């Protein structure tokens, strides 16, 4: 119960403090969950930065798409990494975040996505980790 309460407090803090969210696995397809969640976040005033190597250099939701987290300039000020990839990709994304996005404060994995070992590494490095949840579902209670 206490862990659940702590996570709710983390979600409330993230919803209030995060401003720039890198969406890893962002799709240009409006029918895909990543597009819908990113569009919602934009509508709430968050800046989204799409990350998808297959669409790098193009534009999704009026934002330039980057091939990887390493390609996003530090000056963009990414606060949160929102992962729309399979669970087996999370470990590499956490490693890339730690190596190339030193300002990031949050790793967030979408519904059905979790990697407890990668989450432990991220937490040990000082990041907040939310797994198997969706900000489009969670943020409205806190905005």
TrEMBL record:
Positions of the CoA-binding domain: 14-113
Q: Which SMART domains match?
A: CoA_binding
Query: Where on the tree of life does the source sit, at the highest rank?
Result: Bacteria
This chain belongs to which protein, by name?
Answer: CoA-binding domain-containing protein
The scientific name of the source species is Paracoccus tibetensis
């Amino acid at each position: 119960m206490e862990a659940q309460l702590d996570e709710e407090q983390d979600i409330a803090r993230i919803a209030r403090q995060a401003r720039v969210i890198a969406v890893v696995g962002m799709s240009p397809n409006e029918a895909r969950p990543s597009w819908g969640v990113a569009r919602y976040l934009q509508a709430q005033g968050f800046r989204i930065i799409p990350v998808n190597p297959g669409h790098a250099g193009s534009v999704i939701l009026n934002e330039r798409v980057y091939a990887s987290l390493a390609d996003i300039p530090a000056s963009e000020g990414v606060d949160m990494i929102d992962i729309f990839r399979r669970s087996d990709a999370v470990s590499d994304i956490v490693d890339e975040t730690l190596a190339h996005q030193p300002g990031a404060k949050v790793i967030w994995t979408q519904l059905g996505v979790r990697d407890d070992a990668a989450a432990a590494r991220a937490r040990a490095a000082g990041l907040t980790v939310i797994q198997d949840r969706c900000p489009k579902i969670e943020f409205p209670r806190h905005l």
